[in-house]
Amino acid sequence: MNEIKIFSPATVANVSCGFDVLGFCLDTVGDEMVIKKTQEKGIKITKIEGFNLPLEVKKNVAGVAALAIYNDAKPECGFEIEIYKKIKPGSGIGSSSASASGVVFAINELLGKPYSKTQLSTFAMKGEAVASGSEHADNIAPGIFGGFTLVKSNHPLKILELPTPTNLYATLIHPQIEVKTSEARDILPKSIPMENAITQWSNLGSLVHALHTNDYHLLGDSLQDVIVEPYRSKLIPHYNDVKEAALNNGALGCGISGSGPSIFSLSESLETAKKVEKAIQEIYSKTEIEFYTFTSKINADGIKIL
Amino acid sequence: MNEIKIFSPATVANVSCGFDVLGFCLDTVGDEMVIKKTQEKGIKITKIEGFNLPLEVKKNVAGVAALAIYNDAKPECGFEIEIYKKIKPGSGIGSSSASASGVVFAINELLGKPYSKTQLSTFAMKGEAVASGSEHADNIAPGIFGGFTLVKSNHPLKILELPTPTNLYATLIHPQIEVKTSEARDILPKSIPMENAITQWSNLGSLVHALHTNDYHLLGDSLQDVIVEPYRSKLIPHYNDVKEAALNNGALGCGISGSGPSIFSLSESLETAKKVEKAIQEIYSKTEIEFYTFTSKINADGIKIL
């Protein structure tokens, strides 16, 4: 195989009570990438469509991730990368992560799959760090593993694959405003009340149990965030209205995707997820803010070969 | 049925990363209780053996729990309670909780089992509050449900039954010193670093996953407590030596049972658990402190009819 085309999906990190550790993978929206083996050694980015991003390898998330796997594998060839970017950078649904994960997945395929998913994640994290300033796997993991993932630890990297309820759908809204990652980070307190922390870990434990037992009711009951949402929701206009509309229309839960501004809802069926999408659209249609919405099955497989 | 004899086991609460929410049930050590229906209405405690505890119903943990179920059920009879107390009060392995849980379990049996386990837990919590000052279910739940339990919330009470790995054994040591519950409570900070809280909930999520996947290695890796242990371990002499000995001898994890002074270890086999017990005994044998140790299978069934 000398060439591969892949779909690298959007992902949701910081899933409610799972701040910094829990993520899941989407299906409807994602980047496409074409990676070609070349006789000439090294990594080249030959094309980026969709958004204006640097072609220079060391300044590009996908480039840096590609270099990480390339320098480890030391193959007798090089690679050319074409990026057809569909996920808007800064949307909060893992745009940079999709580029980083996709390229390492593709190169691994072209090399004959010498690396494990965890190893691929460590390479992708090098790329992710270009965008976010630190290596973390909360969007990388759901992209590479698919479904729901729990990042048990970053150093050493330990990723757990959680079960994905088959009838679970996500509804996303991306209000086209800028939430600076640095602001989203700085707004969080350095220390938190013990009582709230207990509520949070009790909910996360319950959520993991709910995924294992396919218990949608408990899943909804556990999708609470008493730590981060009270702060970050202030950065997203009409957040509370969106959440209220989602829950009133049958969503199991609703929260901030990544560090925002996207908002995710989870629903038990496609029908409910679509109803939720419509209700959320109505909220934002009344504002001046541009937005788009989409509904997606939870993608249990992660990155796909096209 | 006019009379019932039951075994109400010791329990471990605050299991490492599951502070305030996670508990498990022991098998080897527990109270025995005999409950008899009487024609005369009301609750009477007729006998307490083992430890010096109040016979007066309203001052006794079992008495208050019995009154709670009795006043709700309003039966055409009364009940007499005999308590053969084996779990030393203040040991940190759910002594008061065993009395409270046992009596409501027994009365429910004598009434023909009208109540769910969750309802029984709410009655037992009224008794537990006599000893601890507040209603909480972290020792009650594992006694009544058996195995590992997660208290998702106290109000409303929501208890989750987690799977119990079949080959899991606990080793307990009870150093016979007094740790005042109030001191164990006051020593804890009111707020905690965000970073540590994230570590704690990541570990709890992992632990729940480990129980569901029967993954002993991950279980061991998740049995960490970065929040409470650093404070409360100071109240237990030789805590660090005990922990080191347990881990060096193959224990998956080691932590403070309840608010101490008992220390629990978890091991994958009876053989390892016994080896851990011996190693821990050696540590405490060199001190002036009286202690006892025991090893127990995790009791998946909870309270038993004898």
Automatic annotation (TrEMBL), chains A, B:
InterPro entries named in the record: GHMP_kinase_C_dom, GHMP_kinase_C_sf, GHMP_kinase_N_dom, Homoserine_kinase, Ribosomal_Su5_D2-typ_SF, Ribsml_uS5_D2-typ_fold_subgr
GHMP kinase N-terminal domain location: 65-147
Domain named GHMP kinase C-terminal: residues: 208-285
This protein's GO CC annotations: cytoplasm
Location of the protein in the cell: Cytoplasm
The entry's keywords: Amino-acid biosynthesis, ATP-binding, Cytoplasm, Kinase, Nucleotide-binding, Threonine biosynthesis, Transferase
Gene3D superfamilies in UniProt: 3.30.230.10, GHMP kinase, C-terminal domain
Broad EC category: transferase
Protein's recorded name: Homoserine kinase
